[in-house]
């Protein structure tokens, strides 16, 4: 008994009834236009006192008018908002934004016409039927009502008809509720098909998701490269400074250099972190991140925390900003891996601009013991590959002749035409501090999956 009652008068049924009444209210302007058209044709009187034929004729005229006006793109967002609130359909089954394309507009027009047409019938019945049903139900209790309104229907030889009016009036009200519930269920079942996403909407949504994922991946790479490198460098410098201080005759100049490198690395990392977090808070991609380029290599090498032999061939000042920025990140990731996995050996980094290609090669000797891989396999080399691929280049890493080698080739377009001819290598050992043994907390060694 509870389920039928809830189906007719429950919260969802009441909301759908309200949705139908809203459709009837929206149909009123079209119905009035229809009465203006039908009135002269059928020679009727005033609009509100016109015959049922005129009113249903106006109804028939108003439906095509509603369908035509529903072809405007903004009809769908308004219909979706009302249906989401009142139809009891899951919100994700509706399309977002204005209707674009013939198919989407046609389906929206079909929904709008169905909503207004069914709403007009249910609204008219909701206004006219309850007073009539209550009057019928009151006939057994009012002789004056029987004589005045229904005298022709009753006969003294059939007094049972008087008492039959009571359940008849109640059945009328139940029938109205059932009709409204059925119309609401019809709208709810038709809403996902008529207001749901079209293939064009699904494609647009997929493109938006792909763009969002691309932004998230780019921000994740920036965080991994900048913060990961800074933490590795800080860990190594702090460990080296602690060992020097624990020595019998501490080298205060070395400790001062290590603290300076820590300060520079953390200041640079905090600035980059603020830029990334600013984009995350805004929820949108507002352009390229203010990441450093190859002009910041000296500071990067100083913070690496071990002896780094850097060789630069060619004029890097003419590189496009995107290439310079991604090349910096690739070098940064290579130094981060060297800090983590190499021991006291010199890390070799070569950057060569030749024609329209920038080649980055980083090497460090392999250790004698196998490394312990990360459980998640690491993301550094994957990020290097993604950066190179985004620029149309390639990247590869692995053991070669007893060395761990990372090689990336990036096309630079016309940058090679602007670069000066090589005037010899600018090669000099650069160190961010004295060698202080392996980094603490991680076994040394190569592992492509662990890097």
TrEMBL record:
Annotated region Disordered: the residues are 413-451
- This enzyme's EC code(s): 2.7.13.3
Q: Where is the composition biased (Low complexity)?
A: 418-445
Name the InterPro entries for this protein.
Answer: HATPase_C_sf (IPR036890), Sensor_HK_TwoCompSys (IPR050482), Sig_transdc_His_kin_sub3_dim/P (IPR011712)
Highest taxon, organism lineage: Bacteria
Annotated TM spans: 20-41, 53-74, 112-140, 160-188
A GO MF label? kinase activity
Key words of the record: ATP-binding, Kinase, Membrane, Nucleotide-binding, Phosphoprotein, Transferase, Transmembrane, Transmembrane helix, Two-component regulatory system
| Native source species | Streptomyces roseicoloratus
Output this protein's name. histidine kinase
User: A Pfam family matched by this chain, by name?
Assistant: HisKA_3
Q: Which reaction does it catalyse?
A: ATP + protein L-histidine = ADP + protein N-phospho-L-histidine
Domain Signal transduction histidine kinase subgroup 3 dimerisation and phosphoacceptor intervals: 216-283
